[in-house]
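User: I'll paste a sequence; please echo it back and then give the predicted structure.

Assistant: Echoing your sequence first, then the prediction.
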Amino acid sequence: MASTAPPPNHRPHRLRTRASALLALATLASALAAHAAGVPDRVYVSNEKDHKLQVFNTRGDRLGEIDICQRPRHMMFLPGHAQIIVSCGDSDQLGIVDVATGKLTGTVPVGESPEIFDLSPDGKIAYVSIEDNNVLAAYDIASKKPLFQVPTGKEPEGVLVTADGQFAYVTSEAADAVYLIDLAQQKVAKTIKTGKRPRRLVLRAGANELWVTNELEASVAVIDTTSQQVKHKIAFTVEGVPATDITPVGMAVSPDGASVWVGLGRANRVARVNAADQTVTHQVPVGRRAWGLAMHPDGKTLYVANGLSDELTLVDTAAAKPLRTVPTGRTPSSVLVEP
């Protein structure tokens, strides 16, 4: 009788096939997990008057919208980019949006009229400027419980937590100052006078510089984060535009830190500033009241929310020219990019 035993190499071949299949499944699972963590190629714009987040791809094509709590303003990704946290000024909440489903899945109650916030380095605590209470307030996101409050000057807005999580900088519009808050001691460590009506902050970490927009002074104050003193001011002028209409608010730093883009508000332009010598190199026309800015992580595209023309302008950063402008809904406030 003829032998029915398999060829000598049949079993190893089957094992190699099984191993290849398992590797393919593992690769697919890894890809699915990465995709679930954050939907790629998305730009989110908060609409204060429509109570929605508008969703675009990074080329500016509109994909849909997400219902959110009342008057959404500032947005950030929680760690892993699977969720977006949004401050909602008229419902006194932080909204939590699931990125994969595009739905509001939870809220965290906060004080009256939350403005801007930042997160602790581990993403577990939100530090929120509460405009009507004149405080920086800390909230545990998971338990939804308030942790503490630190009084600031009136009308606090911009918030920036240092990389080590030890301090927070908070702007006070009415006090014309930035407050350096020791988060462990829960008290103000220093008050830094900056200019008229300071609004937002960005950090050039490698240069130990904190940049602060002064809305009613048409300037940016540059603070040395070692001495905690203003070392320079950058003044903006726009040909044919009254100084009172040059109202800088939002900023975005290029990935290499070489440039800082500044929204000039009612001047309807964004300015590119050379960070090394702090000179204005370009001014790009955009929509009305250029306010919220966000940079694509590759540094090639700047996204500008135009609050009074209800539009989003995409700017080619290398050419310093607008690429396209698309409608967003009423009163776009801030922009968030998931590449």
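The domain at 41-338 is CATH 2.130.10.10 (Methylamine Dehydrogenase; Chain H). The longest helix spans residues 10-37.
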